[in-house]
Amino acid sequence: MNGYAKGLQQYRSALADVDGARQAWPEVRSLLQRTLNAIGSEERLAWEVQVNDVFTHRESVIATLGRRPSPFQYNPDSPLNQVMNNDQVLHKEFGALVFSQLTNGRVAAWVQFPQCDQFASESDEATRVLGIGGAEEWDEARIHRVVGAFFEALAHWELDTQATDSPSPVGFQINRNEASTMNSSEATE
Q1: What proportion of the chain, given as a percentage, has pLDDT over 90?
Q2: Residue 93, domain member (yes or no)
């Protein structure tokens, strides 16, 4: 037996697994679309289910919750805003649930957290993986569980406050380090 036979067999097996997963993707993609549309209709959700099909076998099925005016807006009575002509309407993206086939053929699901114009920072958590599995692992029940995890993650994100002790809190983080430094210095005075 030569020294490379085991590695070569593993490689051939891996390629066959990836090809099989890619062949199963169209059926999984259709199941995702049908299930997400059914959930949206049944629950009267204001979400739109779309397919990003720019690349074959890298398509994404995306359920977006939409974009609306942000709760944070420039105060028109502020002298600084008047001088800076800060009068545009700011918007909030309410988040999205994304399913996509990975390069190895497996399917990943993740939450894209809400974004608000001018209120996100580089330290904000923008996305979180909710699950990864082979095509054969995705069925209606698993999609329902992921949708539940998606809304739980959004609820936590919306309710989180800057007073949390979490090292990486969710929600909008604006000058969090400055605020915590100021609060701790004020406490020592």
Answers
A1: 49
A2: yes
**pLDDT at res. 189:** 35
Q: Is residue 175 in some structural domain?
A: yes
Give me the domain span that covers residue 109. Answer: 5-159+169-188
Within a domain: 110: yes
**Cα-trace Rg, the chain:** 22
Task: Name the domain count of the chain.
Answer: 1
Q: What is the pLDDT of residue 157?
A: 84
In Å, what is the CA distance from 121 to each residue of 162, 177, 185? 14, 12, 23
Q: Of 9-23, 85-99, 142-156, give the lowest mean pLDDT range.
A: 85-99
Go through the chain and tell me how many residues it has: 189
Domain assignment present for residue 164? The answer is no
Average pLDDT over residues 116-136: 78
Q: Rounded to an integer, what distance in angstroms lies between the CA atom of residue 112 and that of residue 98? A: 7
Strands 91-93 and 115-116: antiparallel
Residue spans of beta strands (DSSP E) within 55-106: 60-64, 67-69, 91-93, 96-101
Asked if 102 and 143 count as a contact pair (C-beta separation under 8 A), the reply is no
Beta bridge pairs of residue 5: none
Whether residue 162 has pLDDT greater than 60: no
The CA distances from residue 116 to 30, 141, 164, 179, in Å, are 31, 32, 20, 20
